[in-house]
Write a structure and sequence with these properties.
Length: 419
Amino acid sequence: MSCYFDINKKLESIAQEAEAKASESFARIDHTARINSEKVLKAFIDERVGDMHLKGTTGYGYGDDGRDKLDAVFAKVLGAEDALVRHNFVNGTHAISTALFGVLRPGDLMLSLTGKPYDTLNDVIFAEKGGSLAEFGIKYDQIDLLPDGRVNFGQIRERARNCKVAYIQRSRGYSLRPSITVSEIGEMIDAVKSVNPTAIIMVDNCYGELVERIEPCDVGADLIIGSLIKNLGGGIAPTGGYIAGRKDLIELCSYRLTTVGTGKEVGCSLDMNRSLFMGLFYAPETVKNAVKTATFASAFFEKLGFEAFPHYGEYRTDIITAIKLGSRDALIAFCEGIQSGSPVDSFVTPEPWDMPGYDSQVIMAAGAFTMGASIELSADAPLREPFAVWLQGGLTYDTGRTGVILAAQRLLDKGIISI
Ligand SMILES: *Cc1c(COP(=O)(O)O)cnc(C)c1O
């Protein structure tokens, strides 16, 4: 029973049943978080992080030991040789773009193995002008996922022979396809390398970090990329992104972020080191809370008669749950409910709007301490078939759970569900 929110009693008891059903999944999630917390702690200790590394620099940032130490700790956690962790990455798209421009040259082929990349990369890859990959003469091709959302290994072996970059998106993005587990990523890498040993395997790792016990570099990925206002920022990093992987490739990416020749040696950390270290330290715990919130949402909404992706008992490789709510009104009510349960901007009513890059209106709920941070409880829904909402985040499980219950309460209040 909630002491502070007006929740229908029957809805509350359905929530408790859902939680009981998810208890096995919760135990697995707790165990993964324990192992990943040890991994992160051990990386701090092995790299001898000291008080001096928490302090920042200004100006050119030469000899910024904190910044260099942060790169080393991230690399260790991610199973990589080196990393480029910077508050200067304005978002995940910027980090991915930097990695693509870092390693691709005119005439090279980028081959996506997981269909069309995330929407925000459209202009980076395809735009006719503005300095896109296309304008620089970099070719692009893609292998679509099979109709059931699985990877097309046959096509990979046939068509990966002459690509410079083989590109994999781990998380589902705005689709209902299954996200790709790290072990499947390993099989894809083996398939590419069997026909093209020098291909650079690049993984968009957004939303996936620390959900499993291994990361794509542990199974042979050459470069992985993500945002710090998602998993690895732990809900504490106020901005930033990372690229991790092979040392020679990280150097090329750093030349693209700063200048050819100076690379990682410059770029002051201002006062960011402490938050970025602390965010990484909290990340296994924060990711655990987000994955539990997502798992609870699947179990709860399945009990309410909806289809959830993934199913509550399924093995997870990212923090997302998509729920097929079936109508425009249901999507709006769900997002209103999530917003009303946010610690910041709870009094705001989200409304559908025409978002650049989308072919339909989108509604979003986000009441976060960090603007747009989707490691915090948030939901987005394009108002079109299949009328599904994508839910992610939750800094603490208990508040994430409350937010999800308030979303269902809103559906009940509007007469969209009956129990
Ligand atoms: C978040 C995300 C990105 C990057 O998006 P930004 O909003 O620019 O950080 C790229 N790919 C996937 C799958 C993502 O989830």
